[in-house]
Amino acid sequence: MNLKQQWCDHPRCKFYGKVGAGNVRVFSSKERRYYCTACHHTWSANTGTAFEGLRCSRLALARVVEQLSERASLRATGRLTHHPVNTILDWLEHAGKHAAAINQHLIQYLSVTYAQVDELWTFVKKTRTPSTR
């Protein structure tokens, strides 16, 4: 847990969003929680990430998402990672919502027309190396 890269995530705190202000302390290493000495607010290191709200290790979720991105089936992913299929489905939905939120944030102010996107995609397909087709 790196305190130098953390900031208070409470909007009413005077140190909100200020990295390296010296107000952040480790509240619980085991639970990966931080504490702000100014506003007495605690938060998880997983806040705002795909791991937020899940009771699994980061490695377990990363392996499941990796298997699914390699086009493994849900049952095969469950067998390979030793998790039930329903758990895999829940994690897939959770990761998908997080990816959609990131995508929406990144393209929020992108003002392109349909024709521009189509041209861009045509360019990307043409410039791929033969080994990636």
Describe the structure.
The structure is a single chain. This protein is mostly helical. Among the domains are: 3-44, no CATH class; 58-106. 41% of the residues lie in helices and 9% in strands. Strands 1-2-3 form a three-stranded antiparallel beta sheet, with no helix packed on it. Helix 1 (58-69) runs antiparallel to helix 2 (74-81), helix 1 (58-69) packs across helix 3 (85-106) and helix 2 crosses helix 3 (85-106). It is flat. It starts with 23 loop residues before the first strand and ends in a 7-residue tail after the last helix. The model has no long low-confidence stretch (mean pLDDT 85).
Oligomeric nature of the chains: single chain
Q: Give unreliable regions as ranges.
A: none
Distance between the ends: 40 Å
Estimated helix fraction: 40-55%
Which structural class do you get from the secondary structure elements? mainly alpha
Query: How is the main sheet built?
Result: 3 strands, antiparallel
How many helices? The count is 4
